[in-house]
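Sequence and structure are kept together here, with a separate record for every protein. An example record follows, reproduced without changes.
>
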Amino acid sequence: MKDTFAWIFQTYAATAIAFACSFYGIWGLNGSHFEMVSICLFLAVYVAITLQKMIRDNQKEEKDTLIYRAVPWVGLAFSFIFTWRSLKSLPIDHWHFIQLVTSFLFVVSSVFVLSKTIRDQKEYEDHKS
């Protein structure tokens, strides 16, 4: 079944908003620890995409080895831990910390949904032709 235009638009829009909120929070750091937090964010995005692909590939039958299936989960856990530790070490107030954590989680969840939507579109096009 093909996803509707509204669903596709919503997933792209949510991902764009999530990244905008994250970059706004990171930009508000005024240059201090900018690189560290940015790297944590991009690591989490990469791991989220990898994890979603691994889950999707092994949905009907287990095609990958146990270690290959475990690595994305471990990577996601490490990215969350590194991000948490990075943000806790920053000299920022409580509200800025909460904004960064919330936008980080929003980015990870929207990347999962966007990745799934893109794969659904690809599978629909492959099945149709």
